[in-house]
Specification:
Layout: H1 10-18, H2 26-36, E1 41-44, H3 51-64, E2 73-76, H4 80-93, E3 101-104, H5 110-122, E4 126-129, H6 131-138, E5 150-153, H7 156-161, H8 165-173, E6 180-185, H9 190-199, E7 204-207, E8 217-223, H10 229-237, E9 245-248, H11 252-264, E10 269-272, H12 278-289, E11 295-298, E12 313-316, H13 323-330, E13 340-346, H14 351-361, H15 386-389, E14 398-400, E15 406-408
Parallel strand pairs: 1-6, 1-7, 2-4, 2-5, 3-4, 5-6, 8-13, 9-11, 9-12, 10-11, 12-13
Antiparallel strand pairs: 14-15
Helix pairs in contact: 2-3, 3-4, 6-8, 13-14
């Protein structure tokens, strides 16, 4: 099958072939015809399967066939980085056509705000927005969606995990009911199903097999104590064949700590976190993409929606909290049928969680002996540490309020939106 089989506008095909695209991926083969037929769609596909093109290409075609009267398509994405990346892909796919798009996200100055507001009011063909910034713009009361034809939710599960459920519902309340809605998600938990039932009309469903890392990833793991992690990481980074490296840590505090540690060792490294100014985040990401920076340290914000070619090594300094997060993290390497290595550090309390990862991907990951000089690591025996790896009992964290409703005494936020002084 080729892209010619979709009968897209000739100018779109010209752009595709000039960019080196030849054959559609499975998600593109299944989704594009359904979108062209105006069906609402639920698509389950992870990053790296070509899902962005699966919705951009048919939408571009439909825009070219329309009367072009104002804003046509709204794409909602969870992070600034993903919004920018989608906008860049639209620019590439529409290189030979006159279609306008703009990414709307927080973190910029007043000039950026006014540019985004103007695009929303005057009606760029496609708006790619993060929920918080779009709601902030809607607060002005001057934004209208009368001409909207398409709503696309990208990385829907991640948006709900980040607490944007209520924001999405509020945004949708401003949109015309007569529209085509496309929901793309890497996973399909009940909360996504519930959202889909509320906002989609008789949707078609497409599901591409997920939760299986690419065959080109050499997966390894070390059973370690936390006190051994820093020295182990330094030992791994001495291997100069790893030229482009992403290190995942569980918290922003660990990200900063590792960035500072490796910088003191003279390594080419920067920490990437959501509390950086937008301009600094973009600068760091461009340096990493252009191979001016060898090592990037970040949280799971880097595990989805960041498409960087040539990442040779992914290190999970902290084991990911969820098996799906593991798949997304290590999916940053071995992209586009290349080779890569993924190494995970497993401390005793994470052994049970890591066993769940192995069950999910249906593969036992080799446990590598620690280098000489680091001593012995803990025995890898997940059943022994099961109690430490399980989620805490809710009874320990909730007590009854007057009237019988539970009150949280943990840091658990549920679906509340994370606090942030700068709307995304």
């Amino acid at each position: 099958m080729t892209f010619d089989d979709f009968k897209l506008d000739d100018s779109i095909n010209e752009g595709l072939y000039s960019m080196g695209y030849k054959s559609p991926t499975p998600i593109q083969q299944q989704a594009i015809p359904l979108i062209l037929e105006n069906h609402d769609l639920i698509a389950c596909a992870q990053t790296g399967t070509g899902k962005t093109a699966a919705y951009i290409l048919p939408v571009l075609h439909k825009i070219l066939q329309s009367d072009r009267k104002g804003l046509n398509t709204l794409i909602i994405a969870p992070t600034r980085e993903l919004a920018v990346q989608i906008d860049q892909q639209i620019e590439g796919f529409s290189y030979f056509v006159n279609i306008s798009s703009i990414a709307v996200y927080g973190g910029g100055d007043g000039v950026t705000w006014e540019i985004q507001k103007k695009a929303l009011i005057q009606g760029a063909d496609i708006i790619i927005a993060t929920p918080g910034r779009l709601l902030a713009q809607l607060g002005s009361g001057t934004i209208k969606f009368d001409t909207l034809q398409h709503l696309i939710l990208d990385e829907a599960d991640r948006m709900l995990d980040m607490g944007f459920h209520d924001d999405i519902v509020r945004i949708i309340s401003h949109l015309p009911k007569e529209r085509q809605t496309l929901l793309f998600s890497a996973t399909m938990p009940p909360k996504i199903r519930d959202l889909a039932r509320r906002i989609l009309r008789e949707p078609k469903e497409v599901s591409i097999a997920i939760s299986k890392p690419a065959e080109g990833i050499n997966q390894q793991a070390y059973s370690v104590y936390d006190t051994q992690k820093e020295k182990l990481l330094e030992s791994i980074l001495e291997n100069e064949s790893y030229q482009s490296i992403i290190i995942f840590a569980s918290t922003r505090e660990n990200v900063k700590k590792l960035g500072q540690l490796l910088h003191r060792k003279g390594l080419s490294v920067k920490a990437f976190s959501s509390d950086l100014e937008q301009a600094e985040r973009e600068k760091i990401m461009n340096e990493f993409k252009n191979k001016q920076l060898r090592i990037l340290v970040g949280t799971d914000i880097l595990s989805r929606g960041i498409d960087v070619e040539g990442v040779s090594l992914v290190v999970n300094y902290d084991s990911p909290p969820d098996p799906e997060d593991y798949v997304h993290r290590i999916g940053r390497t071995a992209r586009a049928a290349t080779q890569g290595t993924a190494i995970t550090f497993i401390n005793p309390k994470d052994q049970f969680k890591f066993a769940r990862i192995e069950r999910l991907i249906e593969k036992e990951i080799p446990k590598i002996p620690l280098p000489e000089g680091l001593g012995e690591g803990p025995e890898y025996n997940p059943s022994k540490f099961k109690d430490e790896g399980q989620k805490p009992n809710r009874k320990k964290f909730f007590k009854k309020r007057p009237g019988g409703k539970p009150s949280s005494h943990s840091n658990h936020q549920g679906n509340q939106r994370p606090r942030n002084n700068n709307p995304q």
